[in-house]
Amino acid sequence: MRHKPTLTPNPYRTALGHLRRSFVAVALFSAAINVLMLTGPLYMLQVYDRVLSSGSLATLQGLFAIVVLLYGFQGLYEFLRSRLLSRASYRLDAMVSKPAFQLWVGTNTQGQPLRDLDVVRGFLAGPAILGLFDAPWIPLYLGVVFVIHPWLGWLTVAGAGVVAIAALANQAMTQQSIARAMSMDGGERFFVEQSRRHAETITSLGMLDKITERWRQVHVAALAQGQVGSDRSEGVSAFSKTFRMFLQSALLTLGAYLALRQEISAGMIVASTILAGRALAPVDQIIGQWRGIGRAIEAHRRLKQTFDDIEVEKSRIQLPAPTGAMKATRLTKFAPGTAPSADRAKILSGVSFALEPGDGLGVIGNSASGKSTLARLIVGAWSPDIGELRLDGATPDQWTKDDLGRYIGYLPQSLEMLPGTVKENIARFDPQAQDDQVIEAARIAGVHDMILQLPEGYATSLGGTAQPLSGGQIQRLGLARAIFGAPRIIVLDEPNSNLDISGDEALANAITTMRAKGSVVIVMAHRPSAIAAVNKVMILHSGTMVQFGNKDEVMQAVTRPAIPEPAISAVPFIAASRQKG
């Protein structure tokens, strides 16, 4: 059995390919609409030159009936064109929003695919794109004007050239400012989101005025950058509109001159003026909507590039669930930044160990010793720059992320509950999760009774300000989520940093229970109580493994004479944990 990859080769490009038929249909409707746009000028020409000169009421009635029919078709085609573009924007979102969300949440990409997708989707459903579909039909109107009289045609071409130059100048002057403004908008939004998440800290520490001032600086800078492009675009737009009105007057003047010379009729004067205005209308519309078009072009470019930069997940054979046997060989992680190199700082260096099902490993060390880095490497949040980790002999990338995630439990050092109910958070938002599985995880974590005391029990809403919980309560709910489904590998990073004595006891019982079920439990700890229920200990110092082995043996090793200084600091820690165990 083979798995489909999570990310297809650039889903954005694939979605655009699927929308090609819709765009072709829109182009065909645009052709019909632009041909039908000739109805008004030609009808006016016939009225002035035929009806008024002949005084035939029957001719007027017949022409009007034809006009009603043609305008009916034009309205229908306008509706169908707009409906196709609206549905195309919906289909684009349906095809790209899921991989865009996974990309934004599951990778370290610097792009903002969801926001860029919103910009492109809004562009497809908006009025700006209609000008782009109408622009190719400008030669049609110019040709009809040439048929009326070459002088009128050349004057219209000259006017179209001036407007086209204005459009190109508008693009050149605003493209960079639009790109910078979008980037600065993203930075401002991120600052606002982070400030909102830390609202309690900001308010409590009296930082609100200072944070507001910092936001204002970012906000004003983003607005100023956007205003630069807006000012230039508005200037060009004003010039284009004014010039088009002037051109119509110039055409009217030239037409009157030609009519006085008996080279064209009075109806041709009005018809040529309307046709010239229609020829320049798409360019005028593009210039007027250029800010939105420029943002859509920039978002389109970034979406293509963002998805192109993501490595396609390969098809794999479905491996059986890992038993928990784990072997790490020379795990090394460089500090975030440039590409790995020999002179770059290492936050974890050459860590090797092996664990069997049912083992419990306590990883201890001072701050910045590499404990959290090791935790992220084990659960797959980060990939090692050097070395490898194997589960039952296979590297983690031989499973899909979703499959491997079911076999891993993780309690990170920084924890927040997602918007949803208590049950949904514990069950990892799995709609197929059974109630008894959720309750079992809560009981093992010692949090079942606490949940029952909440206003709606397991149905209590969490996240944001829905139901404020203490740090200890959130940590214990996170523990229940980590052990939900009895995963084979459980990694707990500082799991008792917010726990009281009863919480410590519940944690030790949970570790013992899960080890008895055959799970490997790895605990990153500062406090001795966190490793009371483990049988192995690893000591890290400055990213390097100092000791690893059975807890009693490591304790005896670090209490011998002439021991390394970093190991000495672990002696009281291990002794305390041994007494507690």
Tell me what the structure shows.
There is one protein chain. The protein is α/β, with parallel strands linked by helices. It has helices at 11-18, 20-36, 39-54, 57-106, 113-124, 128-134, 138-148, 150-197, 199-204, 208-260, 266-288, 290-308, 371-379, 401-406, 422-426, 435-444, 448-452, 471-483, 501-516, 551-558, 565-568, 571-580, and strands spanning 326-334, 346-355, 360-364, 386-391, 408-411, 420-421, 461-462, 489-493, 520-525, 536-541, 544-550. The strands form three sheets. A six-stranded mixed sheet has the order 5-8-9-3-10-11, with helices on both faces. It has a three-stranded antiparallel sheet with strand order 2-1-4, with helices on one face. 36% of the residues are buried. Residues 1-7 have low confidence and may be disordered.
Keywords for this structure?
581 residues, 6-stranded mixed beta sheet, 3-stranded antiparallel beta sheet, 22 helices, 61% helix, elongated, disordered N terminus
Shape: elongated
Low-confidence stretches: 1-7
Strand arrangement across the biggest beta sheet: 5-8-9-3-10-11
Work out the helix count: 22
What profile does the largest beta sheet have? Answer: 6 strands, mixed
**Mean of pLDDT:** 81
Quote the beta fraction. 5-15%
Q: How widely separated are the two ends? A: 46 Å
Q: Roughly what percent helix?
A: 55-70%
Structural class: alpha/beta
Q: Describe the oligomeric state of these chains in a short phrase.
A: single chain
What Rg do the Cα atoms give?
35 Å
Number of strands: 11
